[in-house]
Amino acid sequence: MIRAMLQQLGKILIEKKLTIAFAESATAGRLCSEFSLIENAGSFLKGGIVCYDACIKEELLKVKPSLIKKYTPESMEVTKAIAEGLRKLIPADLHIGITGLTCPGGSETADKPVGTMFIYAAYDQGMLFSRQMHFTGEREDIVYSTVVKCAELLNQHLAHL
C-alpha cells in the first residue's frame, strides 16, 4: 500500500516540478528514507534533517527555546517552527515538519497521549496543510502510521496545486 502511494506521489512531484525536504523528530528520518526509495527520487527529494533532540531544533533549525518551553517539543507550534527553519537550510518547494510522541516520557499528558503526532507542510511562503493525529500501537506502528498519513495528505493536497 505505502509503496504504490509513494510512487504516485513521486509522479505528482515530478509532473508538477516540485521538490521536497523533511525535518523529522519523532519519525527520525523514516519519511525521508521512504521517499528516497521512490523511482527518480533525485528529481524531487532535496534532503532531510533528523531533529530528535530539542538542541537540534534550537541550534540547527533556529526554533526559539521559549517556543519549545511554552508549547513542548511535541506540539503543532514547534512542528511549524521546524518546517520554517528547514526552509532556511534546504531550498525546496515543500518543507515538511514532523514531531510527536512515540513512547512514554516526553510531554505526554491526558490530552496529548503517546501516539499523538503533528505534521506541518509548508509550501511557497505559506502552509499547505497541518494535522494533529493520534495513532495506537508500538513505536514502530506509530511511526509507520504517520508516514502513511503524511503520504496520503501530500497526495490529496498536491493534486489540487
Automatic annotation (TrEMBL):
Transmembrane segments: none annotated. Residues 5-157 form the CinA C-terminal domain. It comes from Pedobacter miscanthi. InterPro entries: CinA-like_C, CinA_C. SUPFAM superfamilies: CinA-like. It holds the Pfam family CinA. The lineage of its organism: Bacteria, Pseudomonadati, Bacteroidota, Sphingobacteriia, Sphingobacteriales. This is Damage-inducible protein CinA.
